[in-house]
Amino acid sequence: MKSHLLAVLLTLILAFAPWRLMALAGETMMMRPSISHFTSRDDLYYEALALEARLLALGYSVKYQTGLNFMGQEAWGLTVPTEHQIYVEERLHWNARYAVLAHEAGHVLQPDWVDREEGDAFAEIVAALVTHDGLREHARFLARSKGAFLITAIAGWQEAYHAADLLTD
Q1: Do the beta carbons of residue 122 and residue 106 sit within 8 Å?
Q2: Which of 9, 40, 138, 164 can pair with 128 through a Cys bridge, CB separation 3.0 to 4.6 Å?
Q3: How far, in whole angstroms, is CA 76 from its chain's centroid?
Q4: How far apart, in Å, are the Cα atoms of 11 and each of 15, 22, 25?
Q5: Helix spans in 18-115 (H)
């Protein structure tokens, strides 16, 4: 039953969503959940700074620090809406920081109707749209909760594209 529901949801994405989201959905369905692999490159330094500036314009500041954790788990980034603050792991190279910033920016712009899992899916969809760095690592992250990803992709793809436009325009 669960696999049939996932197939129906995937079909809806393929029928109505833009091509980049369709590709992300296909990659996510084929991917096994695992730890994301970050690059050790620093050529997206200026893109990361530009994204920081966009977040500042939205009322959020960014701090880099080591040893982030969320609910006892190591984290690469955290968004604290009550403080209008985003934290990013300082040990990451700039390309990875850019990807994490894009994800956390997705949390800043996520719709009110999402729960925690759907919020992570929304944020990662936004990150995939903002970074244009390939879909594999985004799919690896999203594969942890394929159902939440599919629901969010179907119900929130227009909001995700709008969020990505706000962050890159």
Answers
A1: yes
A2: 138
A3: 12
A4: 6, 10, 10
A5: 19-30, 45-57, 94-108
